[in-house]
Amino acid sequence: MTYPRAENVGIVALDVYFPRRYVDQAELEQHDGVSAGKYTIGLGQSKMAFCDDREDISSVCMTAVQGFMEKYAVSYADIGRLEVGTETVIDKSKSTKSVLMKLFEESGNFNVEGIDTTNACYGGTSALFNACQWVGSPAWDGRLALVVAADIAVYARGPARPSGGMGAVCILVGPDAPLALEFPLRGTFMEHIYDFYKPDMASEFPTVDGPLSVTSYVRAVDHSYAAYLDRLEKVAGVENPSLSDLDYLVFHSPYTKQVVKGFARMAYNDFTRNPDAPVFGDVQQFRDMSREESYGNKVLEKAFITLTKAAFAAKTAPSLLAARNIGNMYTASVFFGLASLLAEVPHAQLDGKRIALFSYGSGCAASTYSFRVRGDTSKIAAALDLAARLDNRIKVSPADFENVMLLREKTHNAQEYEPTGSTAELLPGTFYLQKVDSMWRRAYGRIPQN
């Protein structure tokens, strides 16, 4: 049997999961003894979600997938591919995708392609590309694909800890999607760099070179955005393409202040391509500055942030709802940005518009790509109910948050272990870790639905 070639392949539906508990960043500033505003203004963060030893990457992904399937009434029998993007590894061999196959047992569907993809925060984007390309290829068998992007972002105590968070997203990929991926319009940049990595298998904490990571992010913006604009010009026939040709932009957000800088950096790239454009009249002093000199130049950075303030407010600020209130979610971050945009901007304003995404993963891998809104997004927004869900959480003191982080550190990779975290505050439908046996095999339970 042959299937007609799929058209307008992209995101049919999506849902997100994040923990019920969070720590307030202003209170964390006081607890850590740092200056007021260091986390809330300097990083642009309000709240940070976290989980204790009751949740791991497998339970988080199961919660996201099962919750999505129930909310959208999708049958597991209709899924032909499942791709997982994550950098939260609890096994060096067994994939998180294989654990998720437990959810398929009742349907009897074990003919499901796909596997895990790992490269820091970029794995979810690679998983999405794989799923979309499968649906759009001759290998497609007419079924739908699921993409799961999830991570638990935790750091050792110190200046990086406030940039943690936790979240998972489940995306349904198929033809005739309301968010159709613009297949030819993609720019990618990859290079070898040690800015953020996890060489210590005995710890879930990364090794981070903060200044290098910031520069790497900006370099990735430069190269992937430039490659995207080249495609926009050559493939779509857009003359002198720039930010003005992108209706909305969503960025990977390690913290929201970095997104502000990323947007401004795209404007700087527009300036280098077309410095005589009237919009750049106030930044001509940077005309002769080399690109290498521009990295880390705070005067240039501030000038372009000021220049793009109004455009940023219109095109990107609505996408930061989740990032500001949850924190970094690594592979899921850019998709939480997309979810926030869909939740915050009515479909009438999105209809027919182009939404560009910048996805970055340290090490490094990055892509700028885009979707065209070709269908009603209001159903997705209603299913997300994002603002209400963010409001329906439990605030935890910084001291209790520190105790949870210490518990996770002490029990990482534990054997013959029964978690001690309470299940009383887990949301209905949440999967949780029950025990780890002498062979590191993990057993899970699920909080009953209301």
From TrEMBL:
EC class: transferase
Keyword check for Transferase: yes
Record key words, sorted: Acyltransferase, Transferase
UniProt-listed Enzyme Commission number(s): 2.3.3.10
Name of the featured protein: 3-hydroxy-3-methylglutaryl coenzyme A synthase
Species this chain originates from: Coemansia nantahalensis
